[in-house]
Amino acid sequence: MLGFVSGKKRLTEPNMCFSSSVKHNVPACSKSNPCFSSQVVYDLDSPILAGLPDDVAKYCLALVPRSNFPAMGGVCKRWRSFIQSKEFITVRKLAGLLEEWLYVLTMDAEGKESHWEVLDCLGNKHRLLPTMPGPVKAGFGVVVLNGKLLVMGGYSVIDETGSASADVYQYDSCLDSWSKSAKMNVARFDFACAEVNGMVYAVGGYGMDGDNLSSAEVYNPDTNKWTLIESLRRPRSGCFACGFEGKLYVMGGRSSFTIGNSKFVDVYNTEKHTWCEMKNGCVMVTAHAVLGKNLFCMEWKNQRKLAIFTPDDNSWKMVPVPLTGSSCIGFRFGILDGKLLLFSLQDVPGYRTLLYDPNAAPGSEWQTSDIKPSGLCICSVTIKA
Fold first, then answer.
1. Which of 133, 191, 354, 373 is the 20 to 30 Å CA partner of 360?
2. Which of 226, 188, 22 is nearest to 107 (CA)?
3. Where are any strands of DSSP class E within 96-230?
4. Is it the case that residue 122 has pLDDT exceeding 90?
């Protein structure tokens, strides 16, 4: 159990922390795993592939299997720049070659070591991610944007002094490398964050003094800049967010203006730049994921049912979760191939991951899957590239 104290608030967050113990596994060159030439070409004006128009050359590069992207990025600056761009993902999508991989932050049974690992749609483990820069953190936010993983804010203890962070780190899933992005305007942890229409929003949370925050801000990847937007009507922390059709939904958590957990839903219209409010939210959410046009939640008080939110009519429905292993098992969510994966929060011998398919025939929605992280799942994101 990892507990950090900040001001009046105590953060007990075994679920969201990084370990700096991960080593970067660099694939060795062999006949079965040839490496691209490491010769660097510095002229960005040179053709991508000699003798071919750039549009044809870009399509050729897009045909390469995803596992070879990091090696491709080392060939020349022109290739690297293209692989890092949104255009590369677009070309891969048009070619029908996007590969969906699951990035899972896992922790060992003792709760001491954590690392990110990569699984494909068959559950095959590809590699561990290189160690993220910066100190070990808890209470950070995670968002996927343009094939990249953004890790924002969080709480760290350095020399027995704890503090909130405004740092943002970006993992490029194509080049298998971390870089530092622009800092948020406000240091925060245990906050809500989500991507909406190509922009990233960070809302609420705890601040430097441990008090609830009402501030909100948005990140534009094209300018690498965070901009403050209209604040929430009330401070809110321990919440989460998701995006649907140009709107940002903020749910769960606590507000200093409510007794206990908040059932209010704060909705931000990204076109009108205004907040509105709904009352039929969920509380004490331990896992959430967006799948298609629905939000899937699991509340602490009821680990045996999925709460499914449909934003079109602001309605909820409950779906029973099959009993497996123990009635006390808690879950973390993952998404692959249009299906919801339920990873156990306990190291239960013989446990097989539960899988919920919302498009299956009635009565056949629940199955089991062999896809399973090597440790206990802390959080997961799906990246298509």
1. 373
2. 22
3. 100-107, 114-119, 125-128, 141-145, 148-152, 155-158, 161-164, 168-172, 177-181, 192-196, 199-203, 216-220, 225-229
4. no
156-196 confidence digits (pLDDT tens): 988 888 899 999 999 999 999 999 999 999 999 999 999 99
Q: For residue 349, what are its two tokens? A: 């011998």
DSSP notation for 42-84: --TTS-SSTTS-HHHHHHHHHTS-GGGHHHHTTT-HHHHHHHH
Measured distance CA(284)–CA(310) in Å, rounded: 19
Task: Give the strand pairing for 366-369 and 353-356.
Answer: antiparallel
The two tokens of residue 83 are 């692989």
Residue where the block lists tokens 């800092």: 183
Instruction: Find the Cα–Cα–Cα–Cα dihedral 243, 248, 253, 255, rounded to 10°.
Output: 180
Is 59 within 8 Å of 88 (Cβ atoms)?
A: no
Q: pLDDT (tens digit, 9 = 90+) per residue, 319-336?
A: 999 876 556 678 999 999
The C-alpha atoms of residue 121 and residue 336 are separated, in whole angstroms, by 6
- The confidence score (pLDDT) of residue 126 equals 76
pLDDT tens-digit profile of 233-276?
999 999 999 999 999 999 999 876 555 567 889 999 999 999 99
Which residues sit opposite 143 in a β-bridge? 150
Report the C-alpha gap between 25 and 131 in whole angstroms. Answer: 10
* Alpha-carbon span 318 to 321, nearest angstrom: 9
Count CB atoms within 10 A of the CB of residue 250. Answer: 27
Which residue segments constitute the domains of the chain, with CATH numbers given? 3-25+99-384 (2.120.10.80)
**8 Å CB contact between 268 and 274:** yes
